[in-house]
């Protein structure tokens, strides 16, 4: 069965004055219709660059896609002409950006920006497109949508602006949505509302959803599968419950241990030691070894492949893998 999105060995590099930085070094992941894939990792791990390469919106130069395939319904997006790519973007796949205030045009009303989707892609009249814009704002639960359709982005709160971005993404009922840190800078209550809305829309439209975040707590209740990235590579993949119950990579365990917990009140919050490596000088062997509590000599010299990892019943689960030489020890920790 053809996957909705199937990313295979994707490679992206940035050619700078200081050298060539491999921002995405052979990433492979996929998502099916009606399912949610969460892509996790610290800032600089390559999550957003991968998503931008999938959408075809990387600035080139300095960014260049140097290898791999991005198959959408079996068609390789990387081999399409710019015109074909534009016809897919927005209509079949859409992206929700991290900073809604920067992503929205400050000199156009939100109604005009939403209506433009229908005018350009559906050929609607301005009046009909504006009516659909109001319906969209109602759909994402913006109060008094009819009265606020002529407001500008700066007149909305952060949470409401993010809802406008979600409305824009679902306007043409795409099959795939990529949400890049959609809850950044929002308070906890608004984060939960935004995540609930995305999950509800995913179920209603049977869309595939790729959720990019650095916060494991945000995705626990909405993701089906998780891919963990570090230094431009996938280091662990797993069904969401398996990953939370039995992480198979020290980096994933470090991310889980960094989540604040009520039963740890008064204790020092755990933090992974050190900093992510510069992509201009990625360490040899396992890129995580300078920060890893399990690092041994082999970790410094040999880069681990993605090993297949069995589930709790000792059967190999599809999509369960870890790029750690000592993943068995990590499971038992």
UniProtKB/TrEMBL annotation:
**Principal localization?**
membrane
Q: What SUPFAM superfamilies does the database record attribute to this sequence?
A: P-loop containing nucleoside triphosphate hydrolases
SMART domains in the cross-refs: AAA
Sorted UniProt keywords: ATP-binding, Cell membrane, Membrane, Nucleotide-binding, Transport
- What is the annotated localization of this protein? Cell membrane
Domain ABC transporter as annotated: residue spans: 7-256
Give the matching InterPro entries.
Answer: AAA+_ATPase (IPR003593), ABC_Ni/Peptide_Import (IPR050388), ABC_transporter-like_ATP-bd (IPR003439), ABC_transporter-like_CS (IPR017871), Oligopep_ABC_C (IPR013563), P-loop_NTPase (IPR027417)
The UniProt entry, under Gene3D superfamilies, shows:
P-loop containing nucleotide triphosphate hydrolases
Specify the protein's topology with respect to the membrane: Peripheral membrane protein
Q: Which GO terms describe its molecular function?
A: ATP binding
Family stated for the protein in its record: Belongs to the ABC transporter superfamily.
What protein am I looking at?
ABC transporter ATP-binding protein
Source organism (scientific name):
Streptomyces coffeae
- Taxonomic classification, please? Bacteria, Bacillati, Actinomycetota, Actinomycetes, Kitasatosporales
